[in-house]
Specification:
about 0% strand; binds fe (ii) ion
């Protein structure tokens, strides 16, 4: 999925109360993944982590919603599968936010701000069929994995090895969730 262009400097400065005294600079375009290496600054890492945080939060909300509302003959299995995903993702929210703070940025924490930062679409108000829910989470995990990887690459470029180790571990866990969904969706 293509990441929309983001105003990366603005993202760094604005979070989250507007009380940040940092000077507002000329807007810079959020690089696509292959271009990330051209701008390996700490500010870019902070901005990327904010996007990853928003992606994680969006996935947490959606996978919880689907966990609660999924129905069908295999309810127990699907409910458990989505439960494992949302619980794991929930556990990654705080470390990502704290890593933003460690780098000197401010962590976003409002639904409106998360919606500005993430490209993961909100779930529909109408409850989708079970297989549609699993497909949607599968696709969103792909978006989150790409976002996580961008942050990982930037952390490595900034020699923030604690952060890159954490994100590298998240990569493996997210891919395992994706495998479980892919196997569940096989031939459906
Ligand atoms: Fe539950």
């Amino acid at each position: 999925m293509t990441k929309p262009l983001k105003n990366i400097k603005k993202d760094v400065m604005e979070d989250d109360s507007g009380e940040d005294s940092m000077e507002v600079q000329t807007p810079v375009i959020m690089p696509e993944p292959p271009e990330v290496s051209n701008d390996p600054t700490a500010e870019t890492l902070i901005a990327s982590l904010k996007v990853t945080l928003a992606d994680v939060f969006a996935m947490y909300v959606k996978s919880s919603y689907f966990h609660w509302n999924i129905e069908g003959p295999d309810f127990v299995q699907y409910h458990g599968l989505l439960g494992n995903i949302y619980e794991d993702i929930q556990g990654s929210i705080d470390p990502i936010a704290e890593n933003i703070r460690k780098l000197g940025g401010y962590a976003p924490g409002s639904f409106s701000r998360y919606q500005e930062l993430t490209v993961i679409p909100e779930a529909s108000k109408a409850i989708p069929p079970a297989m549609d829910m699993l497909r949607e989470i599968y696709n969103d995990l792909g978006t989150l994995i790409a976002s996580n990887e961008r942050s990982y690459e930037l952390a490595e470029m900034n020699h923030e090895h604690g952060i890159s180790n954490f994100l590298g571990e998240r990569d493996g866990i997210l891919k395992k969730h994706r495998w479980f969904l892919r196997a569940t969706l096989a031939d459906r």
